[in-house]
Design a protein that fits this description.
Helix content: 25-40%
Structural class: alpha+beta
Shape: globular
CATH topology of the largest domain: Catalase HpII,  Chain A, domain 1
Largest sheet: 10 strands, antiparallel
Bound molecules: NADPH dihydro-nicotinamide-adenine-dinucleotide phosphate
Number of domains: 2
Radius of gyration: 26 Å
CATH superfamily of the largest domain: Catalase core domain
Order of helices and strands: HEEEEHHHEEEHHEEHEHHHHH
Number of strands: 10
Number of helices: 12
Protein backbone atom coordinates (compact mmCIF):
# COMPACT_ATOMS: atom_id res chain seq x y z
CA UNK A 1 0.00 0.00 0.00
CA UNK A 2 2.90 2.34 0.74
CA UNK A 3 3.46 3.21 -2.96
CA UNK A 4 -0.26 3.81 -3.71
CA UNK A 5 -2.32 7.00 -3.31
CA UNK A 6 -4.28 6.40 -0.09
CA UNK A 7 -8.04 7.08 -0.12
CA UNK A 8 -9.05 9.29 2.80
CA UNK A 9 -12.18 10.87 4.25
CA UNK A 10 -12.71 14.49 3.32
CA UNK A 11 -11.19 15.27 6.73
CA UNK A 12 -8.01 13.41 5.76
CA UNK A 13 -8.29 10.13 7.69
CA UNK A 14 -7.33 6.95 5.76
CA UNK A 15 -10.33 4.88 4.63
CA UNK A 16 -10.27 1.09 5.22
CA UNK A 17 -12.88 0.36 2.54
CA UNK A 18 -14.88 2.05 -0.20
CA UNK A 19 -17.00 -1.04 -0.91
CA UNK A 20 -18.55 -2.65 2.15
CA UNK A 21 -20.95 -1.00 4.59
CA UNK A 22 -20.78 -1.70 8.31
CA UNK A 23 -23.57 -4.12 9.22
CA UNK A 24 -24.90 -5.87 12.32
CA UNK A 25 -24.42 -9.42 11.19
CA UNK A 26 -23.48 -10.63 7.72
CA UNK A 27 -26.78 -9.69 6.11
CA UNK A 28 -27.42 -6.30 7.74
CA UNK A 29 -29.00 -4.00 8.75
CA UNK A 30 -26.50 -1.15 8.27
CA UNK A 31 -25.25 0.64 11.36
CA UNK A 32 -25.73 4.38 11.63
CA UNK A 33 -22.13 4.52 12.76
CA UNK A 34 -20.98 3.99 9.17
CA UNK A 35 -20.63 7.72 8.83
CA UNK A 36 -18.58 7.59 5.61
CA UNK A 37 -21.45 5.83 3.85
CA UNK A 38 -23.85 8.54 5.09
CA UNK A 39 -21.38 11.18 4.01
CA UNK A 40 -21.09 9.68 0.53
CA UNK A 41 -24.87 9.67 0.07
CA UNK A 42 -25.24 13.17 1.54
CA UNK A 43 -22.62 14.55 -0.85
CA UNK A 44 -24.37 13.06 -3.83
CA UNK A 45 -27.57 14.80 -2.77
CA UNK A 46 -25.73 18.11 -2.85
CA UNK A 47 -23.83 17.76 -6.15
CA UNK A 48 -26.11 20.15 -8.04
CA UNK A 49 -26.50 23.87 -7.52
CA UNK A 50 -29.43 25.89 -8.91
CA UNK A 51 -29.02 26.18 -12.65
CA UNK A 52 -29.00 29.64 -14.12
CA UNK A 53 -32.60 30.78 -14.86
CA UNK A 54 -31.24 31.91 -18.26
CA UNK A 55 -28.12 30.66 -20.05
CA UNK A 56 -28.23 27.36 -18.14
CA UNK A 57 -26.53 25.24 -20.82
CA UNK A 58 -22.98 26.36 -21.49
CA UNK A 59 -19.55 25.43 -22.87
CA UNK A 60 -16.31 26.98 -21.71
CA UNK A 61 -12.60 27.32 -22.43
CA UNK A 62 -9.54 29.25 -21.34
CA UNK A 63 -7.56 31.34 -23.76
CA UNK A 64 -5.53 34.44 -24.46
CA UNK A 65 -6.35 37.97 -25.57
CA UNK A 66 -3.51 39.67 -27.44
CA UNK A 67 -3.43 43.39 -28.23
CA UNK A 68 -2.66 44.02 -31.92
CA UNK A 69 -3.41 47.77 -32.23
CA UNK A 70 -2.82 50.70 -29.88
CA UNK A 71 -6.05 52.14 -28.40
CA UNK A 72 -4.45 53.91 -25.41
CA UNK A 73 -5.80 57.24 -26.65
CA UNK A 74 -9.25 55.93 -25.70
CA UNK A 75 -8.56 53.92 -22.57
CA UNK A 76 -6.15 53.61 -19.69
CA UNK A 77 -7.22 49.97 -19.08
CA UNK A 78 -4.02 48.04 -18.45
CA UNK A 79 -5.02 45.09 -20.62
CA UNK A 80 -4.80 47.42 -23.65
CA UNK A 81 -1.61 49.19 -22.49
CA UNK A 82 0.75 47.99 -25.25
CA UNK A 83 0.70 46.12 -28.54
CA UNK A 84 1.61 42.47 -27.95
CA UNK A 85 0.30 42.41 -24.38
CA UNK A 86 -1.46 39.17 -23.45
CA UNK A 87 -4.22 38.59 -20.90
CA UNK A 88 -5.68 35.26 -19.80
CA UNK A 89 -9.39 34.82 -20.55
CA UNK A 90 -12.10 32.37 -19.45
CA UNK A 91 -14.97 32.16 -21.97
CA UNK A 92 -18.42 30.67 -21.53
CA UNK A 93 -20.86 30.38 -24.41
CA UNK A 94 -24.45 29.31 -23.83
CA UNK A 95 -27.97 29.04 -25.13
CA UNK A 96 -30.51 31.28 -23.40
CA UNK A 97 -33.76 29.39 -22.97
CA UNK A 98 -32.92 25.69 -22.71
CA UNK A 99 -32.25 23.98 -19.41
CA UNK A 100 -28.94 22.29 -18.62
CA UNK A 101 -29.95 19.13 -20.47
CA UNK A 102 -31.21 20.94 -23.58
CA UNK A 103 -29.73 20.21 -26.98
CA UNK A 104 -26.90 22.46 -28.12
CA UNK A 105 -28.07 22.95 -31.71
CA UNK A 106 -31.37 24.69 -30.88
CA UNK A 107 -32.49 27.95 -32.48
CA UNK A 108 -31.70 30.51 -29.82
CA UNK A 109 -29.48 33.48 -29.06
CA UNK A 110 -26.06 32.44 -27.71
CA UNK A 111 -24.40 34.00 -24.70
CA UNK A 112 -20.80 35.07 -25.35
CA UNK A 113 -19.16 35.83 -21.99
CA UNK A 114 -15.50 36.60 -21.42
CA UNK A 115 -13.64 37.07 -18.17
CA UNK A 116 -10.37 38.93 -18.71
CA UNK A 117 -8.03 38.33 -15.75
CA UNK A 118 -6.31 41.74 -15.91
CA UNK A 119 -3.68 43.09 -13.50
CA UNK A 120 -6.23 45.60 -12.19
CA UNK A 121 -8.92 42.99 -11.56
CA UNK A 122 -11.37 41.06 -13.68
CA UNK A 123 -13.18 42.64 -16.57
CA UNK A 124 -16.28 40.65 -17.57
CA UNK A 125 -17.60 41.21 -21.08
CA UNK A 126 -21.02 39.55 -20.81
CA UNK A 127 -22.27 39.62 -24.38
CA UNK A 128 -24.24 37.63 -26.94
CA UNK A 129 -23.72 36.41 -30.50
CA UNK A 130 -26.08 39.17 -31.65
CA UNK A 131 -25.42 42.92 -31.62
CA UNK A 132 -28.89 43.80 -30.25
CA UNK A 133 -31.47 42.43 -27.82
CA UNK A 134 -35.26 41.86 -27.67
CA UNK A 135 -36.11 44.66 -25.22
CA UNK A 136 -34.53 47.96 -24.25
CA UNK A 137 -35.93 48.36 -20.73
CA UNK A 138 -35.31 45.91 -17.88
CA UNK A 139 -38.93 46.23 -16.72
CA UNK A 140 -39.72 43.89 -19.60
CA UNK A 141 -36.83 41.44 -19.11
CA UNK A 142 -38.47 39.02 -16.61
CA UNK A 143 -41.66 38.97 -18.73
CA UNK A 144 -39.65 38.28 -21.86
CA UNK A 145 -37.72 35.41 -20.29
CA UNK A 146 -40.95 33.92 -18.98
CA UNK A 147 -42.20 33.65 -22.59
CA UNK A 148 -39.05 31.76 -23.56
CA UNK A 149 -39.44 29.23 -20.77
CA UNK A 150 -42.18 26.68 -20.10
CA UNK A 151 -45.91 27.40 -19.92
CA UNK A 152 -47.01 27.09 -16.28
CA UNK A 153 -49.81 24.61 -17.05
CA UNK A 154 -48.56 22.57 -19.98
CA UNK A 155 -44.90 22.71 -18.92
CA UNK A 156 -44.09 23.07 -22.64
CA UNK A 157 -42.41 25.88 -24.57
CA UNK A 158 -45.09 28.19 -25.94
CA UNK A 159 -44.73 29.85 -29.38
CA UNK A 160 -48.07 31.54 -28.60
CA UNK A 161 -46.52 33.33 -25.63
CA UNK A 162 -43.31 34.19 -27.52
CA UNK A 163 -44.97 35.81 -30.51
CA UNK A 164 -47.70 37.41 -28.39
CA UNK A 165 -45.01 39.11 -26.31
CA UNK A 166 -42.91 40.13 -29.32
CA UNK A 167 -45.95 41.56 -31.11
CA UNK A 168 -46.70 43.71 -28.08
CA UNK A 169 -43.07 44.82 -27.85
CA UNK A 170 -42.27 45.60 -31.51
CA UNK A 171 -38.76 46.86 -30.73
CA UNK A 172 -37.99 43.11 -30.53
CA UNK A 173 -38.39 42.61 -34.32
CA UNK A 174 -34.72 43.48 -34.93
CA UNK A 175 -33.47 40.69 -32.67
CA UNK A 176 -36.20 38.25 -33.74
CA UNK A 177 -35.13 38.79 -37.37
CA UNK A 178 -31.55 37.85 -36.49
CA UNK A 179 -32.74 34.89 -34.42
CA UNK A 180 -34.82 33.54 -37.32
CA UNK A 181 -32.05 34.21 -39.85
CA UNK A 182 -29.20 31.84 -40.70
CA UNK A 183 -27.38 33.09 -37.62
CA UNK A 184 -30.04 31.56 -35.33
CA UNK A 185 -28.33 28.15 -35.15
CA UNK A 186 -24.52 28.52 -35.31
CA UNK A 187 -22.67 25.22 -35.89
CA UNK A 188 -20.63 25.69 -32.74
CA UNK A 189 -19.28 28.57 -30.63
CA UNK A 190 -16.18 28.96 -32.83
CA UNK A 191 -18.32 29.66 -35.91
CA UNK A 192 -20.17 32.73 -34.62
CA UNK A 193 -19.42 36.33 -33.76
CA UNK A 194 -19.61 37.84 -30.31
CA UNK A 195 -20.85 41.32 -29.47
CA UNK A 196 -20.75 43.36 -26.28
CA UNK A 197 -24.20 44.44 -27.55
CA UNK A 198 -24.58 47.24 -24.98
CA UNK A 199 -22.89 50.58 -25.37
CA UNK A 200 -20.09 50.78 -22.81
CA UNK A 201 -17.54 53.54 -22.30
CA UNK A 202 -13.76 53.82 -22.37
CA UNK A 203 -11.89 56.57 -20.52
CA UNK A 204 -8.29 57.62 -20.79
CA UNK A 205 -5.59 59.11 -18.56
CA UNK A 206 -6.77 62.63 -19.47
CA UNK A 207 -10.22 61.87 -18.04
CA UNK A 208 -11.91 61.83 -21.48
CA UNK A 209 -14.80 59.41 -21.99
CA UNK A 210 -15.71 57.71 -25.29
CA UNK A 211 -18.77 55.54 -25.93
CA UNK A 212 -17.80 52.12 -27.25
CA UNK A 213 -19.24 48.93 -28.76
CA UNK A 214 -17.22 45.67 -28.71
CA UNK A 215 -17.20 43.20 -31.63
CA UNK A 216 -15.60 39.74 -31.77
CA UNK A 217 -15.48 38.50 -35.35
CA UNK A 218 -14.98 34.78 -35.88
CA UNK A 219 -11.80 33.84 -37.73
CA UNK A 220 -13.14 30.34 -38.40
CA UNK A 221 -15.95 31.79 -40.54
CA UNK A 222 -19.66 31.86 -39.88
CA UNK A 223 -21.30 28.45 -40.21
CA UNK A 224 -24.89 27.62 -39.38
CA UNK A 225 -27.35 24.74 -39.38
CA UNK A 226 -30.66 24.91 -41.18
CA UNK A 227 -33.68 23.77 -39.15
CA UNK A 228 -33.64 20.42 -40.96
CA UNK A 229 -29.93 19.87 -40.33
CA UNK A 230 -30.29 20.78 -36.67
CA UNK A 231 -33.21 18.40 -36.21
CA UNK A 232 -31.19 15.58 -37.71
CA UNK A 233 -28.13 16.42 -35.64
CA UNK A 234 -30.07 16.63 -32.37
CA UNK A 235 -31.43 13.15 -33.14
CA UNK A 236 -27.84 11.93 -33.03
CA UNK A 237 -26.33 14.08 -30.30
CA UNK A 238 -27.54 16.77 -27.93
CA UNK A 239 -23.96 17.79 -27.10
CA UNK A 240 -22.65 18.93 -30.50
CA UNK A 241 -21.14 22.19 -29.17
CA UNK A 242 -19.39 20.57 -26.23
CA UNK A 243 -18.01 17.88 -28.54
CA UNK A 244 -16.85 20.30 -31.25
CA UNK A 245 -15.33 22.80 -28.84
CA UNK A 246 -13.55 20.26 -26.67
CA UNK A 247 -12.18 18.34 -29.63
CA UNK A 248 -11.07 21.47 -31.52
CA UNK A 249 -9.06 22.70 -28.55
CA UNK A 250 -7.78 19.23 -27.66
CA UNK A 251 -6.58 18.81 -31.25
CA UNK A 252 -4.85 22.21 -31.40
CA UNK A 253 -7.39 23.74 -33.81
CA UNK A 254 -7.96 26.79 -31.60
CA UNK A 255 -11.08 28.97 -32.04
CA UNK A 256 -10.07 32.57 -32.84
CA UNK A 257 -11.80 35.93 -33.05
CA UNK A 258 -10.54 39.33 -34.16
CA UNK A 259 -11.57 41.97 -31.66
CA UNK A 260 -12.81 45.39 -32.80
CA UNK A 261 -14.36 48.45 -31.22
CA UNK A 262 -16.60 51.18 -32.55
CA UNK A 263 -16.03 54.58 -30.95
CA UNK A 264 -18.49 57.48 -30.59
CA UNK A 265 -17.40 60.79 -29.09
CA UNK A 266 -19.48 61.81 -26.07
CA UNK A 267 -20.90 64.81 -27.85
CA UNK A 268 -21.62 62.83 -31.07
CA UNK A 269 -24.15 60.76 -29.12
CA UNK A 270 -26.45 63.77 -28.91
CA UNK A 271 -26.56 64.10 -32.72
CA UNK A 272 -27.64 60.59 -33.81
CA UNK A 273 -31.02 59.89 -35.37
CA UNK A 274 -31.32 56.91 -33.01
CA UNK A 275 -30.61 56.51 -29.30
CA UNK A 276 -27.05 55.10 -29.16
CA UNK A 277 -27.80 53.65 -25.69
CA UNK A 278 -30.79 51.64 -26.89
CA UNK A 279 -29.91 47.92 -26.81
CA UNK A 280 -32.24 47.21 -29.75
CA UNK A 281 -30.03 49.33 -32.08
CA UNK A 282 -26.61 48.87 -33.69
CA UNK A 283 -24.25 51.65 -34.63
CA UNK A 284 -24.03 51.61 -38.46
CA UNK A 285 -20.57 50.54 -39.63
CA UNK A 286 -20.54 53.32 -42.24
CA UNK A 287 -20.77 56.01 -39.55
CA UNK A 288 -18.77 54.22 -36.86
CA UNK A 289 -16.15 52.01 -38.54
CA UNK A 290 -14.70 48.99 -36.78
CA UNK A 291 -11.29 49.69 -35.22
CA UNK A 292 -9.08 46.63 -34.72
CA UNK A 293 -7.91 46.05 -31.16
CA UNK A 294 -6.66 42.51 -30.79
CA UNK A 295 -7.12 38.80 -31.15
CA UNK A 296 -8.80 36.26 -28.93
CA UNK A 297 -7.67 32.63 -29.04
CA UNK A 298 -9.21 29.88 -26.91
CA UNK A 299 -6.52 27.28 -26.36
CA UNK A 300 -7.09 25.32 -23.15
CA UNK A 301 -9.89 23.03 -22.03
CA UNK A 302 -10.73 23.48 -18.33
CA UNK A 303 -9.49 20.61 -16.16
CA UNK A 304 -12.91 20.38 -14.54
CA UNK A 305 -16.20 21.49 -16.08
CA UNK A 306 -18.07 22.20 -12.85
CA UNK A 307 -15.20 24.11 -11.27
CA UNK A 308 -14.48 26.40 -14.20
CA UNK A 309 -17.62 26.54 -16.35
CA UNK A 310 -20.58 25.90 -14.03
CA UNK A 311 -18.93 28.02 -11.33
CA UNK A 312 -17.85 30.78 -13.73
CA UNK A 313 -19.74 33.89 -12.65
CA UNK A 314 -19.86 36.70 -15.23
CA UNK A 315 -21.26 40.08 -14.27
CA UNK A 316 -21.32 43.39 -16.18
CA UNK A 317 -20.63 44.98 -12.77
CA UNK A 318 -17.03 43.77 -13.14
CA UNK A 319 -15.23 46.59 -14.88
CA UNK A 320 -11.66 47.84 -14.48
CA UNK A 321 -10.22 51.39 -14.54
CA UNK A 322 -10.43 52.65 -18.13
CA UNK A 323 -13.66 50.75 -18.95
CA UNK A 324 -17.12 51.69 -17.72
CA UNK A 325 -20.84 51.61 -18.42
CA UNK A 326 -23.21 53.87 -20.29
CA UNK A 327 -26.76 55.14 -19.68
CA UNK A 328 -28.15 52.01 -21.47
CA UNK A 329 -31.14 51.07 -19.28
CA UNK A 330 -30.72 47.32 -19.81
CA UNK A 331 -27.04 47.50 -18.92
CA UNK A 332 -27.86 49.46 -15.77
CA UNK A 333 -30.21 46.69 -14.66
CA UNK A 334 -27.75 43.92 -15.50
CA UNK A 335 -25.11 45.61 -13.33
CA UNK A 336 -27.29 44.62 -10.36
CA UNK A 337 -29.01 41.48 -11.58
CA UNK A 338 -26.03 39.37 -12.66
CA UNK A 339 -23.96 39.71 -9.49
CA UNK A 340 -27.12 39.11 -7.49
CA UNK A 341 -27.81 35.89 -9.44
CA UNK A 342 -24.35 34.63 -8.50
CA UNK A 343 -24.76 35.50 -4.83
CA UNK A 344 -27.94 33.41 -4.87
CA UNK A 345 -26.66 30.54 -7.02
CA UNK A 346 -23.06 30.15 -5.85
CA UNK A 347 -22.92 31.93 -2.49
CA UNK A 348 -21.77 35.15 -0.91
CA UNK A 349 -18.07 34.82 -1.67
CA UNK A 350 -18.45 33.42 -5.21
CA UNK A 351 -15.69 35.70 -6.48
CA UNK A 352 -13.11 33.79 -4.44
CA UNK A 353 -13.80 30.54 -6.35
CA UNK A 354 -10.94 29.55 -8.68
CA UNK A 355 -12.89 30.43 -11.86
CA UNK A 356 -13.69 33.91 -10.57
CA UNK A 357 -10.71 34.88 -8.48
CA UNK A 358 -8.75 37.82 -9.87
CA UNK A 359 -5.64 35.84 -10.80
CA UNK A 360 -3.44 38.42 -12.44
CA UNK A 361 -4.24 41.23 -10.00
CA UNK A 362 -1.25 42.11 -7.83
CA UNK A 363 -3.56 42.43 -4.82
CA UNK A 364 -7.14 41.60 -3.93
CA UNK A 365 -8.02 43.48 -0.72
CA UNK A 366 -11.54 44.08 0.52
CA UNK A 367 -13.54 44.52 3.73
CA UNK A 368 -16.50 42.19 3.00
CA UNK A 369 -16.40 39.69 5.83
CA UNK A 370 -17.98 36.36 6.74
CA UNK A 371 -20.75 34.29 5.19
CA UNK A 372 -21.00 31.15 3.08
CA UNK A 373 -17.65 30.04 1.60
CA UNK A 374 -15.46 32.17 3.88
CA UNK A 375 -12.47 29.91 3.20
CA UNK A 376 -9.80 32.59 2.81
CA UNK A 377 -7.90 34.73 5.32
CA UNK A 378 -8.75 38.43 5.80
CA UNK A 379 -7.75 40.48 2.76
CA UNK A 380 -7.26 43.98 4.06
CA UNK A 381 -3.49 44.27 4.37
CA UNK A 382 -3.51 44.09 8.20
CA UNK A 383 -4.97 41.39 10.52
CA UNK A 384 -6.65 43.93 12.86
CA UNK A 385 -8.13 45.94 10.02
CA UNK A 386 -11.57 44.36 9.72
CA UNK A 387 -13.20 47.80 9.38
CA UNK A 388 -12.27 51.07 7.70
CA UNK A 389 -11.21 53.81 8.40
CA UNK A 390 -8.61 52.42 10.78
CA UNK A 391 -5.24 53.34 12.33
CA UNK A 392 -3.13 50.85 10.31
CA UNK A 393 -0.96 52.36 7.60
CA UNK A 394 -0.60 49.03 5.76
CA UNK A 395 -4.37 48.49 5.59
CA UNK A 396 -6.12 48.77 2.24
CA UNK A 397 -7.32 52.24 1.22
CA UNK A 398 -9.37 53.42 -1.74
CA UNK A 399 -7.34 55.06 -4.53
CA UNK A 400 -8.97 58.28 -5.84
CA UNK A 401 -6.53 58.06 -8.76
CA UNK A 402 -8.71 55.38 -10.39
CA UNK A 403 -11.95 57.40 -10.24
CA UNK A 404 -13.61 57.56 -13.63
CA UNK A 405 -14.59 60.90 -15.18
CA UNK A 406 -18.06 62.18 -14.26
CA UNK A 407 -20.95 60.79 -16.28
CA UNK A 408 -22.64 63.71 -18.06
CA UNK A 409 -26.37 63.44 -17.59
CA UNK A 410 -28.83 65.10 -19.91
CA UNK A 411 -32.38 65.83 -18.69
CA UNK A 412 -34.70 65.39 -15.74
CA UNK A 413 -35.44 62.15 -13.92
CA UNK A 414 -38.63 60.68 -15.38
CA UNK A 415 -40.06 57.48 -16.89
CA UNK A 416 -39.39 58.24 -20.54
CA UNK A 417 -41.21 56.45 -23.33
CA UNK A 418 -39.27 56.45 -26.65
CA UNK A 419 -40.86 59.24 -28.67
CA UNK A 420 -40.40 57.70 -32.12
CA UNK A 421 -41.52 54.03 -32.34
CA UNK A 422 -41.03 54.08 -36.14
CA UNK A 423 -37.29 54.25 -35.44
CA UNK A 424 -37.54 50.63 -34.24
CA UNK A 425 -38.22 49.45 -37.81
CA UNK A 426 -35.35 51.27 -39.56
CA UNK A 427 -32.50 48.92 -38.66
CA UNK A 428 -34.37 45.62 -39.13
CA UNK A 429 -35.45 47.03 -42.51
CA UNK A 430 -31.81 47.62 -43.46
CA UNK A 431 -30.94 44.09 -42.38
CA UNK A 432 -33.85 42.57 -44.29
CA UNK A 433 -33.74 44.64 -47.45
CA UNK A 434 -30.06 45.55 -47.81
CA UNK A 435 -27.92 43.00 -45.98
CA UNK A 436 -29.75 39.73 -46.71
CA UNK A 437 -29.92 38.25 -50.20
CA UNK A 438 -32.97 36.48 -51.68
CA UNK A 439 -31.95 33.04 -50.41
CA UNK A 440 -31.36 34.35 -46.88
CA UNK A 441 -34.73 36.09 -46.92
CA UNK A 442 -36.43 32.88 -48.09
CA UNK A 443 -34.84 30.92 -45.23
CA UNK A 444 -35.81 33.68 -42.79
CA UNK A 445 -39.46 33.45 -43.94
CA UNK A 446 -39.44 29.70 -43.62
CA UNK A 447 -37.71 29.62 -40.21
CA UNK A 448 -40.14 32.18 -38.84
CA UNK A 449 -43.12 30.33 -40.28
CA UNK A 450 -41.95 27.15 -38.65
CA UNK A 451 -41.58 28.91 -35.29
CA UNK A 452 -44.93 30.73 -35.41
CA UNK A 453 -46.95 28.08 -37.24
CA UNK A 454 -48.52 26.77 -34.00
CA UNK A 455 -49.70 30.25 -32.88
CA UNK A 456 -53.35 31.32 -32.92
CA UNK A 457 -54.60 33.45 -35.83
CA UNK A 458 -54.92 36.44 -33.50
CA UNK A 459 -51.25 36.33 -32.53
CA UNK A 460 -50.17 35.65 -36.11
CA UNK A 461 -52.03 38.75 -37.28
CA UNK A 462 -50.50 40.87 -34.54
CA UNK A 463 -47.03 39.73 -35.58
CA UNK A 464 -47.69 40.16 -39.34
CA UNK A 465 -48.57 43.78 -38.59
CA UNK A 466 -45.13 44.28 -37.02
CA UNK A 467 -43.38 42.60 -39.97
CA UNK A 468 -45.34 44.80 -42.39
CA UNK A 469 -43.93 47.89 -40.73
CA UNK A 470 -40.42 46.54 -41.29
CA UNK A 471 -41.05 45.75 -44.96
CA UNK A 472 -44.14 44.66 -46.95
CA UNK A 473 -42.15 41.80 -48.53
CA UNK A 474 -41.26 40.54 -45.06
CA UNK A 475 -44.91 40.32 -44.03
CA UNK A 476 -45.92 38.77 -47.35
CA UNK A 477 -43.05 36.27 -47.30
CA UNK A 478 -43.80 35.01 -43.82
CA UNK A 479 -47.57 34.90 -44.46
CA UNK A 480 -46.98 32.74 -47.50
CA UNK A 481 -44.49 30.50 -45.73
CA UNK A 482 -46.96 29.95 -42.87
CA UNK A 483 -49.71 29.07 -45.36
CA UNK A 484 -47.36 26.75 -47.26
CA UNK A 485 -45.99 25.07 -44.16
CA UNK A 486 -47.53 21.62 -44.41
CA UNK A 487 -46.26 20.89 -40.93
CA UNK A 488 -48.09 23.80 -39.32
CA UNK A 489 -50.19 22.59 -36.38
CA UNK A 490 -53.90 23.37 -36.83
CA UNK A 491 -55.03 26.32 -34.74
CA UNK A 492 -56.98 25.34 -31.63
CA UNK A 493 -57.76 26.96 -28.35
CA UNK A 494 -54.89 24.93 -26.91
CA UNK A 495 -52.47 26.10 -29.56
CA UNK A 496 -49.73 26.69 -27.01
CA UNK A 497 -49.69 22.94 -26.32
CA UNK A 498 -46.82 22.13 -28.62
CA UNK A 499 -43.11 21.75 -28.42
CA UNK A 500 -42.45 23.42 -31.75
CA UNK A 501 -40.72 26.76 -31.96
P1 LIG B 1 -23.27 46.95 -42.99
O1 LIG B 1 -23.65 46.46 -44.34
O2 LIG B 1 -21.96 47.60 -42.82
O3 LIG B 1 -23.34 45.76 -41.92
C1 LIG B 1 -24.15 44.68 -42.10
C2 LIG B 1 -23.73 43.64 -41.10
O4 LIG B 1 -24.76 42.73 -40.96
C3 LIG B 1 -22.56 42.75 -41.52
O5 LIG B 1 -21.34 43.39 -41.32
C4 LIG B 1 -22.74 41.57 -40.60
O6 LIG B 1 -22.22 41.86 -39.31
C5 LIG B 1 -24.23 41.57 -40.37
N1 LIG B 1 -24.97 40.45 -40.93
C6 LIG B 1 -24.91 39.84 -42.09
N2 LIG B 1 -25.81 38.86 -42.16
C7 LIG B 1 -26.47 38.86 -40.98
C8 LIG B 1 -27.52 38.09 -40.44
N3 LIG B 1 -28.10 37.10 -41.10
N4 LIG B 1 -27.95 38.37 -39.21
C9 LIG B 1 -27.39 39.35 -38.51
N5 LIG B 1 -26.40 40.12 -38.97
C10 LIG B 1 -25.96 39.87 -40.21
O7 LIG B 1 -24.46 47.88 -42.55
P2 LIG B 1 -24.81 48.64 -41.21
O8 LIG B 1 -23.70 48.69 -40.23
O9 LIG B 1 -25.40 49.92 -41.62
O10 LIG B 1 -25.96 47.71 -40.62
C11 LIG B 1 -27.09 47.36 -41.40
C12 LIG B 1 -27.84 46.33 -40.62
O11 LIG B 1 -26.98 45.20 -40.41
C13 LIG B 1 -28.19 46.81 -39.20
O12 LIG B 1 -29.37 47.50 -39.18
C14 LIG B 1 -28.22 45.53 -38.45
O13 LIG B 1 -29.50 44.95 -38.57
C15 LIG B 1 -27.22 44.64 -39.14
N6 LIG B 1 -25.96 44.50 -38.40
C16 LIG B 1 -25.19 45.59 -38.14
C17 LIG B 1 -24.12 45.50 -37.29
C18 LIG B 1 -23.37 46.71 -36.88
O14 LIG B 1 -22.69 46.65 -35.83
N7 LIG B 1 -23.40 47.79 -37.62
C19 LIG B 1 -23.72 44.21 -36.71
C20 LIG B 1 -24.55 43.11 -37.13
C21 LIG B 1 -25.65 43.29 -37.90
P3 LIG B 1 -20.84 41.35 -38.75
O15 LIG B 1 -19.84 42.06 -39.56
O16 LIG B 1 -20.86 41.80 -37.34
O17 LIG B 1 -20.83 39.89 -38.94
Amino acid sequence: MADKTRLTTSAGAPMPTNDHSLTAGKRGPVLMQDYQLLEKLAHQNRERIPERPVHAKGWGAFGTFTVTQDITRYTRARLFSEVGKQTEVLARWSTVAGEQGAADAERDVRGFSLKFYTEEGNWDMVGNNTPVFFVRDAYKFPDFIRTQKRHPKTNLRSPEAMFDFWAGQPESVHQVTILMSDRGIPKNPARMNGYGSHTYSLWNDQGERFWVKFHFRTQKGHAFHTNAEAEELIGKTRESYQEDLYNMIDGGDFPRWKVFIQIMEEEEATRQSFNPFDLTKVWPHGDFPLIEVGELEMNRNPENYFMFVENAAYAPSNIVPGISWSPDKMLQARIFAYADAHRYRLGTHYEQLPANHAKAAAEVNFYHKDGAMRFFPPKTGHPDAYYEPNQYDEAARADPGVAEPPLRIDGDADRYDPADPDADYVQPRALYAEVMDDDERARLHSNMASAMGPCSDAVKERWYAVLGKVHPDYEAGVRKAVEDDVNAVPVTDDSQVTTRG
